[in-house]
């Protein structure tokens, strides 16, 4: 149905966010990045555009949620193994993110972290053959 997914999220400091997510191993799409935004490559045709808060605010007519105080959404991303879940979340914590929740249901395992702006990222693995 959709050819591309592009999630827009407000950030306090674009360069700080660029460093944080680069430390986690995410590639940056420079074609969709600039002084006021940085675009993370999440997968094939899947992107998160991190937009400087004042620009983000000017583009949307309603109040922008402060993700450190209210949860506006949770970005859920799969990885290939339980070990990959731990590796990515541990890199996020080492880069300054904060620990979120964790769940282990045997065939589904996940952990989450909050980035430097409070956005919640749920990283999980599912055993497709167990379902």
From TrEMBL:
Membrane-traversing stretches: none
| Source organism superkingdom | Bacteria
Q: Which Gene3D superfamilies match?
A: 2,3-Dihydroxybiphenyl 1,2-Dioxygenase, domain 1 (3.10.180.10)
- Tell me the organism: Mycolicibacterium crocinum
Q: Name one Pfam family in it.
A: Ble-like_N
Matching SUPFAM superfamilies? Glyoxalase/Bleomycin resistance protein/Dihydroxybiphenyl dioxygenase
Q: Which InterPro entries does UniProt cross-reference here?
A: Glyas_Bleomycin-R_OHBP_Dase, Glyoxy/Ble-like_N, VOC_core
The entry's protein name is Glyoxalase
**Ranges for the VOC domain?**
3-126
């Amino acid at each position: 149905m959709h050819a591309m997914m592009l999630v827009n999220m407000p950030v306090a400091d674009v360069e700080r966010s660029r460093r944080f997510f680069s430390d986690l191993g995410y590639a940056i799409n420079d074609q969709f990045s600039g002084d006021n935004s940085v675009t993370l490559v999440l997968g094939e045709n899947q992107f998160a555009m991190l937009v400087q808060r004042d620009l983000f605010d000017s583009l949307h007519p309603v109040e922008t949620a402060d993700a450190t105080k209210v949860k506006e959404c949770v970005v859920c991303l799969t990885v290939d193994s339980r070990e990959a879940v731990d590796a990515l979340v541990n890199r996020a914590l080492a880069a300054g993110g904060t620990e979120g929740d964790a769940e282990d249901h045997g065939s589904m395992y996940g952990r989450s972290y909050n980035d430097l702006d409070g956005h919640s990222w749920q990283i999980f693995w599912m055993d497709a053959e167990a379902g």
